[in-house]
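Run Light-independent protochlorophyllide reductase subunit N through structure prediction, thanks.
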Amino acid sequence: MTLPLAPLAGGCRDVPVLKQRGQHEVFCGLTGIIWLHRKIQDAFFLVVGSRTCAHLLQSAAGVMIFAQPRFGTAILEETDLAGLADAQAELEREVDRLLSRRGDIRQLFLVGSCPSEVIKLDLARAAERLSAKHAPKVRVLNYSGSGIETTFTEGEDACLAAMVPALPQTDRRQLLLVGALPDVVEDQALDLLMNLGIEDIAVLPARHADSGLALGSNTVFALTQPFLGGTHAALERRGARHIPAPFPFGEEGTTAWLQAVAREFGVDQARFDAVTTAPRARAKKAVAQAAARLTGKSIFFFPDSQLEIPLARFLTRECGMTAIEVGAPYIHRAIVGLDLDLLGHGPTISEGQDVDLQLDRCRAAQPDLTVCGLGLANPLEAEGLPTKWAIELVFTPVHFYEQAGDLAGLFSRPLHRRAALRLEAAE
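Sure, done. The structure for Light-independent protochlorophyllide reductase subunit N is below.
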């Protein structure tokens, strides 16, 4: 029989958190557009910003010149930033021109690359005005992807939170999965849930604007990403209720996540076991193969994606690693509290960052593996510390049973590479 996971007596929910505020090293929230524009298939993301923002998106997405991506940049020139031009009128002309050329657009996101005080534009009001102008064919929404206001994955959070108030009302009993996942992973999750007998399931973000997505007091939602604090709050304001659960990373986390949903919908234990036994066995076997190189190794997390706490739980409990420090940009206990309960006492839990002080702690600890952003990885590698890019954990399919072995492999490969390099040097 499968039993719900019990919190560890020495879990980390109530341990003191090291909170530091200083220079931090993270990507800005604009990066989320790279996966969101693929996920929401009839949306367009118009970034209102500088040429620097345009270069960032082009470089991060690797868009070829003959491609037709569903994002672009309305570039602000010096006269716009100085308030000498009528930027509102220029923005409206750009939107009109865009929508006349791209008849497939059903949702248009105006994404601020800087606070409104800097770009001299109230994008929220512009979105309201444009949405009224182009309704009902196109819905225009606004959120900030500014690196001043958002970190790496907060761009997705801001995007989804902006969508929630515009969703229609419904009284039907339904499950809402919240968080952008690769289509193949989303389909796997939906298959598992439907096999459990849960039939009325919606997804935010939906792939198309006409998906029929609606919200109400009979909606319960399960998060698939731990960085959706703003979306969590927006959904609760609409009357939806959160199903707390560990995140579906690895066999144990996926089973606990599914159990939380199954309890909410009254799924009996026999059916739960019948649906999950085979994929659980595959996941355990796949994780064990990759974990052979991870067992007994230490890991240090710099704050980047907000995946850090659930990943630390997975790596310590399923892969035999020891966490030295688990840093996260923000710690939202209503979201990651159950993962903290399952994370064994021992690591320093840190929120925010003073990068120089954290680098000092990392160097003193000499971990076997360090998870960090691109800007820190090369210097640490040059000092002899193997690293894993945090950004790769967001772009790679890692959720649920079928990806459990791939997730463990993301952490074992840097250690395998370092061991191979040492062997080559010795020869």
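Confidence is low (pLDDT under 50) at residues 78-84.
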